[in-house]
Amino acid sequence: MNILFSIVAITYWLLSITRIFAHHLGNTDLMKASLWIERFALFLFTTSIIFYVLDMKFENGVYVVNVDSRPISLLLFTWSLNGVQLFMEISYALRFTTIFTSIVTALFLTLFPRLNIVPSLFTNDLEWLSFHRIFFLLGYSFCLVALPVVIRFLWFKHKEKSIPAEQLAETEREIWRLDRMVYRAILCALPLLTIGLLVELLITAENGPGLTYIDWQKKSESLLALATWSICGLYLHTRLFFGWQKTRLILIYLCGFGILFISHIIHTARHS
After folding, report:
1. Same structural domain for residues 113 and 34?
2. pLDDT tens, residue by residue, 6-40
3. What is the pTM of this model?
4. Are 70 and 109 in contact (CB under 8 A)?
5. DSSP H helical segments within the chain, as ranges?
6. What is the per-residue pLDDT across 108-126, written as a single tens digit (0 to 9) for each?
7. Are 50 and 149 in a shared domain?
8. Same domain, yes or no, for 195 and 115?
9. Cross-strand bridge partners of residue 57
């Protein structure tokens, strides 16, 4: 398994380098080639995860994963992140974020496990293979793909103050496009999180009377998903019903992202 995931990591390093050169040179042929590399990398990643799951052993009534420096939740999250990126690229021509997602994937699969950074953030809990947890990860991925878009938005807003008047219209169009991309990503994340939470609610209702405090502690990932769902709902509500746009919504996104990330770090530090 380590060999397969190492090949996947190398492929994503290659993809990130190809995309950087394609954007820097403005080469359309290189951009098209990188799209095929991206599709091949996702196919290879999917195949590797399938073999990873099939390699599990059934011992003492439970499935046991083989010892690996890459937890199952890490693998599924990075896989869903790249699947979401490919969807956004094909549907909305969002290409520059591939650099971000491919570098994150390559780091998660190579450098971070060796530094023992990943185990504190991700777990080998096999519940991540369940239907609703997959939907949680897909929702998180849409939210994370929006991060480089937000950074690019802030960069253009900063440039807007000092650019010549003849370039102002083009910059404003790019700012409007980036604002729409963040909106579309959050709009895709909310129904995925909603489905995951509804399934989790049905499972909890079935076992609810016997749940103890320790059981609820184990559902911290569901509480994190609920918090993410609330922030996405706040983002969409203020946009659709109050007419907020651009900088105000970007601040909501950044505040929500920061709160969730810090909360997750504190939770994993307390329970590690």
Report:
1. yes
2. 888 889 988 888 888 887 777 778 888 888 888 99
3. 0.86
4. yes
5. 2-25, 28-54, 72-92, 97-109, 111-114, 131-160, 168-207, 213-218, 220-242, 247-271
6. 888 766 655 554 556 666 6
7. no
8. no
9. 64
